[in-house]
Amino acid sequence: MQQKNQSQSQLHNYFLTSKLKYSLNKEIITSIKIRNHFIKGILKEYDQHLNLLLENPIEIVYDKNGKKEKELKNKKLIIRGDSIISIDINPEKSEIIQIDHTGKLDTDVLEESEEE
After folding, report:
1. pLDDT tens-digit profile of 12-24?
2. What domains are there in the chain, each with its CATH number?
């Protein structure tokens, strides 16, 4: 049983890191564990724990009045991997990777709606 969980976890990490590899030096959007908060920025580095280093980060907050974007003072931001809920590795096509910290994997590729 432990061996099965370990192999699932290795597969999960391999999939995530291979997807992130193609997103280096490109804009991504991460959903974090603070409700309705997202961070957008250029992915510069990552590790096997999904700690991300973003350049030129912008905080996006959705509230009852709509969407608000705020440029963060720091030019670089490290986001700890266990605080990430999802990563949109291709914001133009909404290619979203859901992060399940139990080792399971769930990906969705959503087509952009024509209304946007």
Report:
1. 666 777 888 889 9
2. 2-109 (2.30.30.100)
